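Please produce the structure of this protein holding heme C.
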Amino acid sequence: MQLPSTRHLRYVVTTVDESMWMYMKRLFAVLLLMGIVAIAQLPTSNAFAQTAPGVGHGFVIDKHLGAQLTCANCHTESTAKPPEMVTCLSCHGGTYDALAKTTENDDPNPHASHRGELPCAECHHIHQASVLLCSQCHDFELKVP
Ligand code: HEC
Ligand code: HEC
Ligand code: HEC
Ligand code: HEC
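Below is the modeled complex.
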């Protein structure tokens, strides 16, 4: 009787070996890709950090880019248009009243005054140093982030 079974077995073993090698190569390629993607997402390498006006001076834009936001998170249509207040509120409280609640222990509360619902950028300029609009007329000890 012939012994085709041995040859056949050998064939099977080599095939398994080769497909295992192919598998390892693919696994390595996938891991390498995951590594590159992970490095690209490190906070220090937000691609928008290079292009934002006023970046790198400790203004509020730095905190936003540090939190991986993009220009479009605030400038929903175009960077030529200043963001709408609702866009800011969508991340900060939801409504002006809810935002005011987070600073209700301040005296006076910068988010609830006789000046009503002031546009955020009157104080938080984002790309420039923040200012306290109230200081035009008052002398309050409030620090604007
Ligand atoms: C956290 C929200 C926010 C993000 C993120 C943001 N901006 Fe702005 N941007 C503003 C606000 C608010 C103004 C209006 C400033 C004012 O009225 O003082 C503005 C104004 C501007 C202006 C007008 C000129 C100026 O300096 O005021 C340009 C240009 C601009 N943004 C570009 C960008 C680009 C480019 C990016 C992304 C790299 C970006 N912005 C990301 C909030 C943002
Ligand atoms: C997509 C969500 C998002 C939008 C839109 C957004 N912010 Fe923010 N904002 C954040 C995050 C995240 C931080 C960082 C939080 C932290 O570091 O504590 C932040 C930080 C801030 C801070 C600093 C808070 C602190 O305690 O130092 C201010 C002020 C602020 N944002 C105002 C604004 C204003 C004004 C706008 C609109 C022009 C705006 N944000 C739009 C998410 C957003
Ligand atoms: C009159 C100036 C003024 C205006 C207008 C203003 N803020 Fe503020 N904001 C402040 C001051 C002052 C603080 C610091 C309060 C504190 O540290 O307790 C503050 C704090 C914040 C914080 C941090 C809150 C926290 O819990 O630490 C956020 C977020 C914020 N403002 C978002 C906004 C948004 C969004 C708007 C518009 C809807 C806005 N602010 C309008 C003056 C202002
Ligand atoms: C254009 C000038 C002007 C601006 C800007 C202004 N106020 Fe006033 N504020 C006044 C006047 C005028 C009065 C009433 C006279 C008084 O009592 O001093 C007053 C009264 C007050 C009072 C009650 C009296 C007191 O001094 O304790 C508070 C609280 C107050 N303002 C908070 C604010 C806050 C918070 C802001 C910023 C969001 C602000 N004001 C912005 C002019 C202004």
